[in-house]
Amino acid sequence: MKTFAELNFPGRLVAVEGLDGSGKSTQIYLLKRWLELQGMKVYFSEWNSSELVKSATSKGKKRELLTPTTFSLIHATDFADRYERHLVPLLRAGYLVLCDRYIFTAFARDVVRGCPPEWVRGLYSFAALPDLTFFFKSDLEVSLQRILDGRPQLKYFEAGMDLRLSTDLYESFRIFQGRILEQYLAMSTEFNFLVVDANELVEKQQEVVRELVAQNVNLASFRRAERLPARPTPAPQPKAVKPEEPAE
Ligand SMILES: Nc1ncnc2c1ncn2[C@@H]1O[C@H](COP(=O)(O)OP(=O)(O)O)[C@@H](O)[C@H]1O
Ligand SMILES: [Mg+2]
Predict the structure, then answer these.
(1) 120 DSSP 8-state letter
(2) What's the whole-model pTM score?
(3) Is 70 exceeded by the pLDDT of residue 101?
(4) What residue's CA is closest to ligand 1, atom 12?
(5) What spacing in Å lies between the alpha carbon of 21 and ligand 1's midpoint?
(6) Which protein residue has the closest C-alpha to ligand 1 atom 16?
(7) Are the C-beta atoms of 218 and 96 separated by less than 8 Å?
């Protein structure tokens, strides 16, 4: 598998990965704003956001119709739709593409749900690798607490309740997310994850993220072309003082 840079795309793709509640969305949002304020061509895309499969995903989740295989395929379709219609065209057009989760989310989650690892990887073999992948490594308890600080209850699927690991939502979350963490850690070296200590303060992590992006991406090449200054209106010329024409 090659990165977009290795495939000679003019654009670059930066992905964030990590447990639910690790702070990925917060960090990628701050990165996006920082880049936009510098006048960069930036495009943001989020896991599980394709219009194409939205209703099927929501129906499947609500009615608990999804098996590990259909769960995986529906997410792969969601990704393929965004990949082909948005990510690739914008990377061809020289954009800096920011992805909130990429194929590693499927590699980790679907395997924990019981899909064979080679099968999951094969599903996503059409996709190139990100040029940079940040892994926000948070302790299980830290991410759990952050989620609970933001809303009253864990979500059924983020707690992995479909796996029947425990009847207790919190216990299920710990077991499920713990297994996902193991998968991420196992992939970390293979896919050159840039590991960020996600237990740290938001600002401290953002500093690290910005520095690593600046070191690894030629940011100057992503600046929007300066808009040509409006043609200057010619300064009023002093009227030549003509001798008065004799009235006709
Ligand atoms: N470093 C941090 N310290 C404390 N709270 C954080 C930190 N980063 C994010 N949060 C908060 O934790 C919650 C989950 O963050 P979010 O960025 O949505 O995580 P993710 O996208 O990884 O699920 C949000 O309420 C967010 O404001
Ligand atoms: Mg998020």
Answers:
(1) H
(2) 0.90
(3) yes
(4) 146
(5) 5
(6) 23
(7) no
